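job 3f2a | input accepted
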Amino acid sequence: MPRILIVTTSHDRLGFGDDARPTGVWFEEFAVPYLEFERAGAQLTVASPRGGAMPIDPRSTPTAAQEQEWASALEASRHTLLLAGQQAADYDAVFLPGGHGPMFDLPDNADLQRLLYDFQAQDKFIVAVCHGPAGLVGAKRPADGQPLVQGKTLTSYTYEEEIAAHLDQDVPFILENRLKELGATFIAAPVKAEHVECDGKLITGQNPASSAKIAQVLLAALRNQAAIAL
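job 3f2a | predicted structure (230 res):
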């Protein structure tokens, strides 16, 4: 029974002013993996920098049908724990869903950086989709103190997708470009295409369309790891 920590944003604006447009978690990227994990019997913990109800990007508000289908994920979204209280030793994997919120509060979050450092040191899975890899930007490797993503093959929401969404002027940096600057080998699929990259125990997905796939890839990797351990 895998133990998975899901870390979401607490940031609810495209910027820091009260007049900035609302954002948050892109709910599909939380709910779809949450249900995949839940069906697999995983023990799930959801945490965020501020705890409490996660902000949901209004553009991703569930439909009435999705509210029924995603009921358990909606309930979990209302009660996140404080990120500061989480320890890598308690989990087998950490998963960072996207939305534009993570671009503002995850890159320099000390609690997340500590957790990612420990997940690496303990050789555990680090998984992120869409803008979730923004949380990897400030993380360092235990071995040499270099960026976590340096030399890694990965993906995220692309510059082309940011432009297509007309939000390239609203983010503090272009995630694709920043990951490349940090030494990552960035692989981009066409806009809105399902796309997941695996490099060791780092698993990344490009966009909302990759939400189910990335959860399935992680679960398969955890099962394989468990089988090898037997």
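job 3f2a | The radius of gyration is 16 Å.
job 3f2a | closed
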